[in-house]
Design a protein that fits this description.
Helix content: under 10%
Oligomer: single chain
Shape: globular
Mean pLDDT: 89
Distance between the termini: 65 Å
Low-confidence stretches: 1-20, 305-327
Structural class: mainly beta
Largest sheet: 9 strands, antiparallel
Strand content: 35-45%
Radius of gyration: 21 Å
Number of helices: 2
Order of helices and strands: HEEHEEEEEEEEEEEEEEEEEEEEEE
Length: 331
Protein backbone atom coordinates (compact mmCIF):
# COMPACT_ATOMS: atom_id res chain seq x y z
CA UNK A 1 0.00 0.00 0.00
CA UNK A 2 1.45 3.36 -1.04
CA UNK A 3 1.41 6.12 1.55
CA UNK A 4 -0.59 9.23 0.75
CA UNK A 5 2.03 11.94 -0.05
CA UNK A 6 -0.26 14.59 1.42
CA UNK A 7 -0.25 12.95 4.85
CA UNK A 8 2.04 14.60 7.45
CA UNK A 9 5.23 12.85 8.45
CA UNK A 10 5.23 11.02 11.76
CA UNK A 11 5.71 13.13 14.90
CA UNK A 12 9.24 11.85 15.51
CA UNK A 13 10.37 12.93 12.03
CA UNK A 14 8.73 16.33 12.49
CA UNK A 15 10.57 16.80 15.78
CA UNK A 16 13.90 16.01 14.15
CA UNK A 17 13.31 18.39 11.26
CA UNK A 18 11.99 21.32 13.29
CA UNK A 19 14.76 23.87 13.98
CA UNK A 20 15.47 24.49 17.63
CA UNK A 21 14.44 27.91 18.86
CA UNK A 22 17.11 30.00 20.54
CA UNK A 23 16.35 31.32 24.04
CA UNK A 24 15.50 35.00 24.31
CA UNK A 25 18.67 36.91 25.11
CA UNK A 26 17.00 39.97 26.68
CA UNK A 27 15.16 38.72 29.77
CA UNK A 28 12.80 41.40 31.20
CA UNK A 29 12.42 41.73 34.96
CA UNK A 30 10.03 39.18 36.44
CA UNK A 31 9.82 36.95 33.38
CA UNK A 32 11.72 34.08 35.06
CA UNK A 33 10.42 34.64 38.60
CA UNK A 34 9.71 31.45 40.52
CA UNK A 35 8.96 31.01 44.23
CA UNK A 36 11.40 33.08 46.30
CA UNK A 37 13.43 33.96 43.20
CA UNK A 38 12.75 37.22 41.35
CA UNK A 39 15.17 35.92 38.71
CA UNK A 40 16.14 32.31 38.00
CA UNK A 41 18.42 31.66 35.04
CA UNK A 42 20.33 28.41 34.85
CA UNK A 43 22.22 26.73 32.01
CA UNK A 44 19.05 25.03 30.76
CA UNK A 45 17.12 28.31 30.52
CA UNK A 46 20.07 30.08 28.91
CA UNK A 47 20.83 27.27 26.46
CA UNK A 48 24.43 26.85 27.51
CA UNK A 49 26.54 24.74 29.88
CA UNK A 50 27.88 26.61 32.93
CA UNK A 51 26.74 30.10 34.06
CA UNK A 52 23.75 30.72 36.36
CA UNK A 53 22.19 33.59 38.29
CA UNK A 54 19.35 33.79 40.77
CA UNK A 55 18.02 36.77 42.70
CA UNK A 56 16.58 35.69 46.05
CA UNK A 57 14.03 37.92 47.79
CA UNK A 58 13.58 37.31 51.52
CA UNK A 59 10.99 39.02 53.75
CA UNK A 60 11.97 40.09 57.29
CA UNK A 61 12.77 36.93 59.22
CA UNK A 62 12.83 34.90 56.01
CA UNK A 63 15.02 31.86 55.37
CA UNK A 64 15.91 29.87 52.28
CA UNK A 65 17.75 26.58 51.76
CA UNK A 66 20.01 26.40 48.74
CA UNK A 67 20.96 22.98 47.38
CA UNK A 68 24.07 23.72 45.33
CA UNK A 69 24.04 20.54 43.24
CA UNK A 70 26.83 20.42 40.67
CA UNK A 71 27.51 24.18 40.88
CA UNK A 72 29.52 26.54 43.06
CA UNK A 73 27.73 29.71 44.26
CA UNK A 74 28.51 33.14 45.64
CA UNK A 75 25.87 34.79 47.83
CA UNK A 76 26.10 38.54 47.17
CA UNK A 77 23.78 41.01 48.96
CA UNK A 78 22.10 43.52 46.66
CA UNK A 79 20.06 45.13 49.44
CA UNK A 80 20.15 44.17 53.09
CA UNK A 81 22.25 41.66 54.99
CA UNK A 82 21.97 37.99 55.81
CA UNK A 83 23.52 34.99 57.53
CA UNK A 84 24.81 32.14 55.38
CA UNK A 85 25.34 28.76 57.05
CA UNK A 86 27.13 26.04 55.10
CA UNK A 87 29.60 23.23 55.73
CA UNK A 88 29.49 23.83 59.48
CA UNK A 89 30.42 27.50 59.01
CA UNK A 90 28.34 30.60 59.67
CA UNK A 91 29.02 33.82 57.74
CA UNK A 92 27.42 37.11 58.79
CA UNK A 93 27.05 39.33 55.72
CA UNK A 94 26.54 42.96 56.65
CA UNK A 95 25.44 43.72 53.10
CA UNK A 96 24.44 47.22 52.00
CA UNK A 97 21.48 49.53 51.51
CA UNK A 98 21.67 49.26 47.72
CA UNK A 99 24.10 48.39 44.95
CA UNK A 100 24.86 52.11 44.68
CA UNK A 101 25.71 52.39 48.38
CA UNK A 102 28.99 50.49 48.61
CA UNK A 103 30.87 47.29 47.96
CA UNK A 104 29.63 44.36 50.01
CA UNK A 105 30.91 41.28 51.75
CA UNK A 106 29.86 37.91 50.32
CA UNK A 107 29.99 34.16 50.92
CA UNK A 108 31.20 31.28 48.75
CA UNK A 109 29.34 27.95 48.92
CA UNK A 110 30.78 24.86 47.19
CA UNK A 111 29.06 22.28 45.01
CA UNK A 112 27.35 19.26 46.59
CA UNK A 113 26.32 21.23 49.67
CA UNK A 114 23.29 22.72 51.38
CA UNK A 115 23.30 26.33 52.58
CA UNK A 116 20.76 28.21 54.67
CA UNK A 117 20.34 31.90 53.94
CA UNK A 118 18.49 33.87 56.63
CA UNK A 119 17.77 37.60 56.91
CA UNK A 120 16.34 39.30 59.99
CA UNK A 121 15.46 42.53 58.19
CA UNK A 122 14.86 41.00 54.76
CA UNK A 123 16.60 41.84 51.52
CA UNK A 124 17.56 40.85 47.99
CA UNK A 125 20.52 38.58 47.35
CA UNK A 126 22.21 37.59 44.11
CA UNK A 127 23.26 33.95 43.83
CA UNK A 128 25.94 33.79 41.14
CA UNK A 129 26.69 30.23 40.09
CA UNK A 130 28.70 28.04 37.75
CA UNK A 131 28.76 24.31 37.10
CA UNK A 132 32.14 23.05 38.23
CA UNK A 133 34.28 20.02 39.04
CA UNK A 134 36.35 20.92 42.12
CA UNK A 135 34.79 21.17 45.55
CA UNK A 136 36.41 24.11 47.34
CA UNK A 137 35.81 25.10 51.00
CA UNK A 138 33.03 27.47 52.02
CA UNK A 139 34.50 30.92 52.67
CA UNK A 140 33.76 34.53 53.60
CA UNK A 141 34.78 37.46 51.41
CA UNK A 142 35.10 40.76 53.33
CA UNK A 143 34.04 43.99 51.64
CA UNK A 144 37.34 45.61 52.64
CA UNK A 145 39.24 43.17 50.38
CA UNK A 146 37.14 43.76 47.24
CA UNK A 147 39.33 45.57 44.67
CA UNK A 148 37.61 48.74 43.47
CA UNK A 149 39.14 49.61 40.10
CA UNK A 150 38.57 52.61 37.84
CA UNK A 151 38.69 51.77 34.16
CA UNK A 152 38.53 53.83 31.00
CA UNK A 153 38.56 57.64 30.93
CA UNK A 154 36.31 60.56 30.05
CA UNK A 155 32.82 59.40 29.10
CA UNK A 156 34.09 55.80 29.06
CA UNK A 157 34.95 55.96 32.78
CA UNK A 158 33.45 53.26 35.01
CA UNK A 159 34.05 51.47 38.30
CA UNK A 160 34.61 47.73 38.66
CA UNK A 161 34.19 45.90 41.97
CA UNK A 162 36.15 42.74 41.22
CA UNK A 163 34.90 40.64 44.16
CA UNK A 164 35.25 37.28 42.40
CA UNK A 165 37.70 38.12 39.65
CA UNK A 166 39.92 35.31 38.36
CA UNK A 167 43.00 36.64 40.12
CA UNK A 168 41.21 37.94 43.20
CA UNK A 169 39.07 35.21 44.82
CA UNK A 170 39.47 31.48 44.22
CA UNK A 171 36.65 29.62 42.53
CA UNK A 172 36.74 26.62 40.24
CA UNK A 173 34.86 28.10 37.25
CA UNK A 174 32.96 31.17 38.40
CA UNK A 175 34.11 34.70 37.53
CA UNK A 176 31.92 37.57 38.77
CA UNK A 177 32.31 41.36 39.05
CA UNK A 178 30.12 44.42 39.57
CA UNK A 179 30.28 47.49 37.31
CA UNK A 180 28.99 50.98 38.12
CA UNK A 181 28.63 53.52 35.34
CA UNK A 182 27.88 57.21 36.03
CA UNK A 183 24.89 58.64 34.17
CA UNK A 184 25.74 59.51 30.57
CA UNK A 185 28.79 57.22 30.36
CA UNK A 186 29.48 54.07 28.35
CA UNK A 187 30.71 50.79 29.87
CA UNK A 188 31.72 47.48 28.29
CA UNK A 189 33.45 49.62 25.70
CA UNK A 190 35.11 49.07 23.31
CA UNK A 191 32.90 46.13 22.36
CA UNK A 192 34.71 42.88 23.04
CA UNK A 193 34.16 39.16 22.93
CA UNK A 194 35.21 35.94 24.63
CA UNK A 195 33.42 33.19 22.69
CA UNK A 196 36.37 31.21 21.31
CA UNK A 197 39.37 29.58 22.92
CA UNK A 198 42.72 30.90 21.71
CA UNK A 199 45.51 30.18 24.22
CA UNK A 200 46.81 33.35 25.83
CA UNK A 201 44.52 35.53 23.70
CA UNK A 202 40.85 34.76 24.27
CA UNK A 203 38.77 32.69 26.70
CA UNK A 204 35.50 30.92 25.99
CA UNK A 205 33.03 32.26 28.56
CA UNK A 206 29.24 32.48 28.79
CA UNK A 207 28.14 35.74 30.39
CA UNK A 208 25.11 37.10 32.21
CA UNK A 209 24.49 40.84 32.63
CA UNK A 210 22.05 41.71 35.45
CA UNK A 211 21.05 45.41 35.57
CA UNK A 212 19.84 47.89 38.15
CA UNK A 213 19.30 51.55 37.24
CA UNK A 214 19.29 54.30 39.86
CA UNK A 215 16.02 56.17 40.33
CA UNK A 216 13.90 53.82 38.21
CA UNK A 217 15.72 54.97 35.08
CA UNK A 218 16.74 53.12 31.95
CA UNK A 219 19.84 52.24 29.95
CA UNK A 220 20.79 50.43 26.77
CA UNK A 221 22.88 47.36 26.03
CA UNK A 222 24.20 46.07 22.73
CA UNK A 223 25.44 42.66 21.59
CA UNK A 224 26.42 42.34 17.91
CA UNK A 225 27.20 39.11 16.06
CA UNK A 226 30.77 37.86 15.90
CA UNK A 227 29.75 35.02 13.55
CA UNK A 228 27.03 34.20 11.08
CA UNK A 229 23.74 33.77 12.93
CA UNK A 230 25.29 34.91 16.22
CA UNK A 231 23.72 36.83 19.08
CA UNK A 232 22.21 40.17 18.06
CA UNK A 233 20.63 42.28 20.84
CA UNK A 234 19.80 45.96 21.25
CA UNK A 235 17.88 46.20 24.51
CA UNK A 236 16.42 48.96 26.64
CA UNK A 237 17.25 47.73 30.14
CA UNK A 238 15.69 48.61 33.47
CA UNK A 239 16.13 47.39 37.03
CA UNK A 240 15.83 43.61 37.17
CA UNK A 241 16.46 43.05 33.46
CA UNK A 242 19.05 40.55 32.29
CA UNK A 243 20.95 40.06 29.03
CA UNK A 244 22.45 36.66 28.16
CA UNK A 245 25.66 36.65 26.11
CA UNK A 246 26.62 33.21 24.80
CA UNK A 247 28.69 34.77 22.01
CA UNK A 248 29.20 38.03 20.17
CA UNK A 249 30.73 41.46 20.58
CA UNK A 250 29.13 42.86 23.73
CA UNK A 251 29.03 46.54 24.54
CA UNK A 252 28.39 49.30 24.98
CA UNK A 253 26.27 49.40 28.11
CA UNK A 254 24.96 52.96 28.12
CA UNK A 255 23.74 54.81 31.22
CA UNK A 256 21.21 57.55 30.45
CA UNK A 257 22.13 61.05 31.71
CA UNK A 258 21.30 61.54 35.37
CA UNK A 259 20.79 57.81 36.02
CA UNK A 260 23.72 55.74 37.24
CA UNK A 261 23.81 52.15 35.97
CA UNK A 262 24.81 49.00 37.86
CA UNK A 263 25.34 45.59 36.39
CA UNK A 264 26.51 42.27 37.77
CA UNK A 265 28.55 40.12 35.38
CA UNK A 266 28.53 36.35 35.90
CA UNK A 267 30.86 34.31 33.68
CA UNK A 268 31.98 30.70 33.34
CA UNK A 269 33.08 28.38 30.58
CA UNK A 270 34.60 25.04 29.63
CA UNK A 271 38.27 26.08 29.58
CA UNK A 272 40.76 24.30 31.82
CA UNK A 273 42.09 27.63 33.10
CA UNK A 274 39.89 30.12 34.94
CA UNK A 275 40.84 33.32 33.15
CA UNK A 276 39.17 36.27 31.46
CA UNK A 277 40.85 36.99 28.13
CA UNK A 278 39.11 39.16 25.56
CA UNK A 279 39.39 40.50 22.04
CA UNK A 280 38.35 44.08 21.26
CA UNK A 281 36.17 44.73 18.23
CA UNK A 282 38.60 45.70 15.43
CA UNK A 283 36.52 48.74 14.46
CA UNK A 284 36.42 50.21 17.97
CA UNK A 285 39.56 49.17 19.85
CA UNK A 286 41.30 52.41 18.87
CA UNK A 287 39.34 54.24 21.57
CA UNK A 288 41.78 52.90 24.15
CA UNK A 289 44.56 54.99 22.61
CA UNK A 290 42.64 58.17 23.51
CA UNK A 291 42.33 57.41 27.22
CA UNK A 292 45.87 58.37 28.37
CA UNK A 293 45.11 61.99 27.43
CA UNK A 294 41.81 62.10 29.32
CA UNK A 295 40.98 62.37 33.01
CA UNK A 296 38.92 59.76 34.81
CA UNK A 297 35.37 60.96 35.41
CA UNK A 298 35.54 62.94 38.70
CA UNK A 299 32.32 61.30 39.90
CA UNK A 300 34.27 58.08 40.40
CA UNK A 301 34.61 56.16 42.54
CA UNK A 302 30.91 56.31 43.34
CA UNK A 303 31.73 55.18 46.86
CA UNK A 304 34.59 53.97 48.97
CA UNK A 305 36.38 54.63 52.26
CA UNK A 306 37.73 57.83 50.72
CA UNK A 307 35.57 58.73 47.76
CA UNK A 308 38.19 60.85 46.01
CA UNK A 309 41.07 58.41 46.56
CA UNK A 310 42.24 56.46 43.52
CA UNK A 311 44.36 53.82 45.26
CA UNK A 312 47.54 52.37 43.84
CA UNK A 313 45.86 49.82 41.61
CA UNK A 314 43.42 52.26 39.99
CA UNK A 315 45.92 54.42 38.14
CA UNK A 316 45.65 57.96 36.77
CA UNK A 317 44.26 59.03 33.41
CA UNK A 318 42.54 55.77 32.65
CA UNK A 319 45.52 53.49 33.25
CA UNK A 320 44.01 50.09 34.02
CA UNK A 321 46.30 48.79 36.74
CA UNK A 322 44.77 45.76 38.42
CA UNK A 323 45.93 43.71 41.39
CA UNK A 324 48.42 40.94 40.60
CA UNK A 325 46.68 38.25 38.60
CA UNK A 326 43.50 40.27 38.06
CA UNK A 327 42.02 40.89 34.63
CA UNK A 328 42.28 44.15 32.77
CA UNK A 329 39.78 45.11 30.13
CA UNK A 330 36.75 47.12 29.11
CA UNK A 331 34.22 45.91 31.66
Amino acid sequence: MTANPTEPADQESQAVQKPQESPERHVPAGSTAAGPYALDIGPERAGWSHSALRVLELPPGGTHTLATGDSEWVVLPLTGGCTVRAEGESFELLGRESVFGGATDFAYVPRDAHAQIASGAGGRFALAGAKCERRLPARYGPASEVPVELRGAGTCSRQVNSFAGAGVFECDRLIAVEVLTPGGNWSSYPPHKHDEYHPGVESELEEIYYFEIDGDGLGYHRVSPSRSGGTDVLAEVRTGDTVLVPDGWHGPSIASPGRDMYYLNVMAGPGESREWLIRDHPDHGWIRDTWPGLAVDPRLPLYGPEKDARGPEKGPNGDEKAPDGAEEGPR
